[in-house]
Amino acid sequence: MSKLRFPVALVAPLSIFAVAAASNAEVTVGNPAVACAEDPACMNRIHPAIPMVATAEPGERIVFVGRDAFDLSLDPDELSSAPAIPREGIGIVHALTGPVAIRGARAGDVLAVTIEALEPAAVGWTEAGPFGFAGEQFGQDGRFIVWRINEEYAVSDALPGVRIPNAAFPGVVTTLPGERLLAEVLEREGELLALGGTVLPPDPVEAQPAALCGPGGTRASECLRTIPPREHGGNMDIRYITTGTTVYLPCQIDGCGLAVGDFHYAQGDGEVSGTAIEMGGELTVTTRIVNGGPDLSHGPHYEGPASVLRIPSERFYAVTGFPLKAPGSVPANMAYLASDRVAGLSNLSADVHLAARNALAAMIDYIVTEYGYDRAQAYMIASVAVDLRIGQLVDVPNVGVTAVLPLDIFTGERH
User: Fold this and answer.
1) Please, which residues have CB within 8 angstroms of residue 183's CB and are 6 or more apart in sequence?
2) How remote is the C-alpha of 146 from its chain's centroid?
3) Using CA atoms in the order 367, 372, 375, 377, what is the torsion angle rounded to 10 degrees?
4) CA 266, CA 182: separation in Å to the nearest integer?
5) Cα dihedral value 360, 227, 87, 82, nearest 10
6) What CA–CA distance (Å, rounded) separates 19 from 42?
7) Is 161 helix (H, G, I), strand (E, B) or coil?
8) Which of 18, 89, 93, 281 has the least C-beta neighbours within 10 A?
9) What CA–CA distances, in Å, run from 145 to 25, 156, 376?
10) CA 23 to chain centre
11) Alpha-helical runs (H) found in 165-300
12) φ, ψ for residue 207 (rounded to 5)?
């Protein structure tokens, strides 16, 4: 399958991968006018030995020019919908920009990263399939759609009557882990994989930087995949880490190694189909070194204005879900545990995952019945716009999850 490239009109070519603009105190990193493999500032693996591509002073603006997660080039006039993504393999995921060294930062510091702006590209995409949340239940009818994007909203010819407002944020914000955390991650994820858990182990196919992580790379068996977030940050996919917020990341190597990517134009809490509105763009951040900062041993922290917590709509409709199931069935996420007790139960105790599946099922049914979309379309609408939120965790056995649908996304203009 041929590799598509960005149309010139969508992404202005940049000069070399890292350019210090002294006149306005910016460091610009990334060149999506070429393929990830040709851009020294494009990385898609995590490892402490990945070389820095630029250095920024604390407080200096860093402009990360990023590509979408799969490094696609799409024209909505030529492609609006397809049964699957027009690209083979997932080795490229995620095509990140970086890493950038922060001058003066040392291992043991905390790095505060403030997001100043995220300018979206003109085209985005969403895919639904078996890889999503409860994909074996909701993602059997695979679908790939392309969005037209402007500063205010995104629309797709494949989803008539839906208009998604701009709520852009980076799915990935990360520093590089230290050697100790790297070893711990490799051990614990290896143990989980051996027992049948869902893990993507190190894989050199399409890995960047290739000299370190690719076939024949010096540390190829250690380069972590970017799919899961970890203690160093990474693919957190938290839509509230957006313009005006500050995320606190651990600095585990000198310089920290800040990298970003997986830009999303909009996403519902849960990103249930496996993707949001994926896009390229330009992310501007500033950094600050925090001595004696917060304890980040359980994961990054972030703060910002409460306005980012609100749904982008004046009205909503919501459904609920509880940990109930048909007797004889085993939720797919529990299959690797090989428990002989789960199948016979119709009610699991305090199982948030099952409650969320049930809330999502009810929401998909509602969108199909109320608005006339097919189930694959409803699944994608849920991924880019519906928030899965925990209602309560104490009313055992039936903890509760609610799915919230912003109604203003529907224009009423179905074709």
Assistant:
1) none
2) 17
3) -90
4) 31
5) 10
6) 15
7) coil
8) 89
9) 39, 7, 11
10) 33
11) 179-194, 210-213
12) -75, 140
- Are 118 and 282 within 8 A, CB to CB? yes
Per-residue pLDDT of the chain (415 residues; tens, 9 = 90+): 333 333 323 333 332 333 333 335 699 999 999 999 999 999 999 999 999 999 999 999 999 999 999 999 999 999 999 999 998 888 999 999 999 999 999 999 999 999 999 999 999 999 999 999 999 999 889 999 999 999 999 999 999 999 999 999 999 999 999 999 999 999 999 999 999 999 999 999 999 999 999 999 999 999 999 999 999 999 999 999 999 999 999 999 999 999 999 999 999 999 999 999 999 999 999 999 998 899 999 999 999 999 999 999 999 999 999 999 999 999 999 999 999 899 999 999 999 999 999 999 999 999 999 999 999 999 999 999 999 999 999 999 999 999 999 999 999 865 4
Place of tokens 């407080």: 59
Two tokens at 370? 């109320």
| CA dihedral (150, 156, 161, 167) positive or negative | negative
Q: Where does 10-143 have alpha helices with state H?
A: 135-138
